[in-house]
Structure formats: structure tokens, C-alpha cells
From TrEMBL:
It comes from Oikeobacillus pervagus. This reaction introduces a second double bond into the aromatic ring system. HAMAP family: Chorismate_synth (MF_00300). FMN binds at residues 132-134, 253-254, 298, 313-317, 339. GO terms for biological process: amino acid biosynthetic process; aromatic amino acid family biosynthetic process; chorismate biosynthetic process. Its cofactor is FMNH2. Pathway: Metabolic intermediate biosynthesis; chorismate biosynthesis; chorismate from D-erythrose 4-phosphate and phosphoenolpyruvate: step 7/7. This is Chorismate synthase. NADP(+) binds at residues 39, 45.
Length: 390
């Protein structure tokens, strides 16, 4: 499967085209809108989220509630567009109008894409960079992820995400008994954290950062349960599923690192404390007694839950000014801004869930017969039977 996205943050709409879905898979627009609404929630976001009410439109590839096997095009319109039609219009500007539109961006923000993107494409109005580097684009990545999530759900594979750290405040009691419980508790938490005590402290940390004109980041965790064994590859680097998931996490705006299972802790322990012992039972088939490696060995799934974490740096746009250089005057200035999020870690955990769902669903489509949805389901069930007896 593959997908592309298009759209500027303050342009008319965001678009994604998804290709490679099996035909005959049930899909309705509510499957996507539920996920879009989850991404919009979350403590610490700026005023833009009050303007937008993200709703997808399915423009192709679905008929009477089922996929056709042809590309699925999804569109999400930007409500904010109506305030930006002059600044973001596609028609050439009338003479003198450039002066009139006084929103030219010549002051690059440290930590954002402005300066590097400006130099790369020759954009001396760095609005041309920020419009596309904005995490507004994650709206349609979540839309594509929602389609992947629907596919996984229909195949008995569940995925959930939660926030485990914000601004140095760590969640302690993350002993959930099932993914369902984790989902229910985190959906009700404004910071998408399972540990209610930590959640209060996280909100306070966000408030404090905001009051100081600053921003904070954090760590999110995604868990996938029910994966068949052997999805991915040990044969070639570009089919390794851990590598694909890692790339997907780090492709999210402001994500700077990724770890699986016990993660970087593995480098501080003995092999006997890291590797998961193998066991077999007639009912379960093969399983691991522990899951310190997060469900992945040799670039493939091992049937245990996939556990992946990503770290998000603090938001770059700050009310508290950091020094930068105006590209027109070359003078040093202290950046000032109109609006920004002070923390987007809760929203980003929904994005992380979406991109992981996409990678896992893609790997399944690559691995099994996938022209028809019923054929895909049967092929996975047959594989599960085979792996149990192996
Ligand atoms: C959900 C979400 C919301 C974000 N909101 C903002 C924001 O309001 N202001 C900002 O400067 N950066 C925001 N970012 C981060 C920037 O998009 C990101 O730092 C920028 O694209 C530069 O890319 P890099 O940090 O990956 O190097 C957000 C990121 C995510 C995932
Ligand atoms: C629009 C979204 O996030 C935006 C991501 C973003 C950035 O620089 O990444 C900057 C802000 O945009 P604006 O300047 O329009 O307020 C955020 O609101 C969204 O998540 O849907």
C-alpha cells in the first residue's frame, strides 16, 4: 500500500490518495471522522483547533460502504482557509498587491523548517515553507491511518496509544489489563495518559510552560496486539518492519527518536536480561514468556504485542523569543508570534498510532494475498493455523 498527501496548512483543503487496499473491505466516513476528532483533542493546543472541525470526505474508491480496489481519495477542508484566501490564493498577484499582503515571512524560527526549506527551494517568503512543513498535514495522515486501522480491526488486530511522559513528568502506574482498558482510560484523559495522577501533573507542566511563553515535549507509546508471526522480513533491509515503523514515527513533525520494547535500556543490560524466552502451548502456539523486545525480532513480528515509543521535542514556535536572523536585513531579532500550540504530545500520540497502523497494515498487505478482503482474511487465518503447529 502507499499514500501521498497534499495540501497547505492555510490552503483550501488537505488531500490523500491511498492505493493498494483490498476490494470488498467495509469502510464508512465515520471510521475516519472518529480518528480525526481524536487528533483534535488534547490539552495544550493553540487557537487553531477551535477553528477547525475536521471532517473527511471520501471522493473515490468506495461504493455503497465497501472499497472497490481502486485508489481511495480523501479530502479534509480547512475552515481557516476563508481567512487566508488572499494570502494563499493560487492566482498570480496583481501588481502592487505583494505590498498589500504584509504577511511575508522573513524571520525564520529556530527549530522549524523555515530557514533550511527557504534556502532549499529559494523561497524568500518563508510562508511557502511553513505552510507545508506545518503539522496540519498530519490530519490526512491520521485519515489514511484510520483506513489502515479499520482494516486491522476487521482482521482482529487492535492498536492503541497513550502518553507516557510530558515535560519530564512520567506516568507511573501503566499496569493496564487490556488494550480496551487502556483505550477507555486514555480517551477520557485530556493528556491521553493512563495514570491520572501523572496526568494532573502533566497539565500543570503544560500550563507552567505556557505561562512562561515556552513549550514542552514528551514521549508517546503505541501498542499493536494480534499480529501474525513473520510479518516483515529478515531477508532485506527495506522490508524490515521495525525499520519501517521507526521511519514512520520519526517522520512525524517534531519526533526525534524511537525505541521498541525496553528500548535504549537494552544497551545497559545483559543478554539474559533482555531476550524473551520461547514457549509453546497447544492452544496458543508459540509465544514469548516476556516481551522486552516489543514484539519484533529479525525485522519481523514474533506474535507478541508490538510496543514502540517516540519522543517529541518541544514545539519550536515560542511566545518567549529566541534569537534568529531576518533574511532581508540580516539583523538579529527576537522572534514574536501570533499563535501556537504549547504542547501537542497528546494529539501527536494519535498521529503516532495512525502511522504505525499504516506501516503494520501495509506489511500485512505485502505479506498475504490482498486483492479481495475475504481472501486476505482467509489467508491470515490459514497462516495462524500453520504457525501454531509449526
Ligand atoms: C500535532 C502537532 C502539532 C504541532 N503544532 C505546532 C505548532 O503549533 N507550532 C510549531 O511551531 N510547531 C508545531 N509542531 C511541530 C512542527 O511541525 C515541527 O517542529 C516542524 O515541522 C519542524 O520539523 P522537525 O521538528 O521534525 O524538525 C507540531 C507538531 C505536531 C505533531
Ligand atoms: C493546524 C494544525 O496544527 C498546526 C501545526 C503548526 C506547525 O507549525 O506544525 C502550527 C500551528 O498552525 P497555525 O499557525 O495555523 O495555528 C498549529 O495549529 C493541526 O494540527 O491541525
Amino acid at each position: 500500500m502507499r499514500y501521498l498527501t497534499a495540501g497547505e496548512s492555510h490552503g483550501p483543503q488537505l488531500t490523500t490518495i491511498i492505493e493498494g487496499l483490498p476490494a470488498g473491505m467495509p469502510l464508512v466516513v465515520e471510521d475516519i471522522n472518529t480518528e480525526l476528532a481524536r487528533r483534535q483533542k488534547g490539552y495544550g493546543r493553540g487557537r487553531r483547533m477551535q477553528i477547525e472541525k475536521d471532517q473527511a470526505m471520501i471522493k473515490s474508491g468506495v461504493r455503497h460502504g465497501k472499497t472497490l480496489g481502486s485508489p481511495v481519495a480523501l479530502v479534509v477542508e480547512n475552515n481557516d482557509w476563508k481567512h487566508w484566501t488572499k494570502i494563499m490564493g493560487v492566482e498570480p498577484l496583481d501588481e502592487g498587491a505583494e505590498e498589500e499582503i504584509k504577511r511575508k515571512v522573513t524571520k525564520p524560527r529556530p527549530g522549524h523548517a523555515d530557514l533550511n526549506g527557504g534556502i532549499k527551494y529559494g523561497h524568500r517568503d518563508m510562508r511557502n515553507v511553513l505552510e507545508r512543513s506545518s503539522a496540519r498535514e498530519t490530519t490526512v495522515r491520521v485519515a489514511a491511518g484510520a483506513v489502515a486501522k479499520k482494516l486491522l480491526k476487521l482482521l482482529g488486530i487492535e492498536i492503541a496509544s497513550h502518553v507516557i511522559e510530558i515535560g519530564g513528568v512520567k506516568a507511573n502506574s501503566i499496569n493496564f489489563t487490556s488494550l480496551k482498558e487502556l483505550q477507555e482510560v486514555t480517551e477520557a484523559s485530556p493528556v491521553r495518559c493512563f495514570d491520572q495522577e501523572a496526568a494532573e501533573k502533566m497539565m500543570k507542566a503544560i500550563d507552567d510552560a505556557k505561562d512562561n511563553g515556552d513549550s514542552i515535549g514528551g514521549v508517546v507509546e503505541v501498542i499493536v496486539e494480534g499480529m501474525p508471526i513473520g510479518v516483515g522480513s529478515y531477508v532485506h533491509y527495506d522490508r524490515k518492519i521495525d525499520a519501517k515503523i521507526a521511519a514512520a514515527i520519526v517522520s512525524i513533525n517534531a519526533f526525534k527518536g524511537v525505541e521498541f520494547g525496553i528500548g535504549f535500556e537494552a544497551g545497559r543490560k545483559f543478554g539474559s536480561e533482555v531476550h524473551d524466552e520461547i514457549a509453546w502451548e497447544a492452544e496458543k502456539g508459540y509465544y514469548r514468556k516476556t516481551n522486552r523486545l516489543g514484539g519484533l525480532e529479525g525485522g519481523m513480528t514474533n506474535g507478541m504485542p508490538i510496543v514502540v515509543r517516540g519522543v517529541m521535542k518541544p514545539i519550536p514556535t515560542l511566545y518567549k523569543p529566541l534569537e534568529s536572523v531576518d533574511i532581508e536585513t540580516k539583523e538579529v531579532f527576537a522572534a514574536s508570534i501570533e499563535r501556537s500550540d504549547s504542547c501537542a504530545v497528546p494529539a501527536a500520540s494519535v498521529v503516532a498510532e495512525a502511522v504505525v497502523a499504516w506501516e503494520v497494515a501495509s506489511a500485512i498487505i505485502d505479506h498475504f494475498y490482498s486483492d479481495r478482503f475475504d481472501g486476505l482474511k482467509a489467508s491470515i487465518e490459514e497462516h495462524q493455523r500453520y504457525a501454531k503447529e509449526f
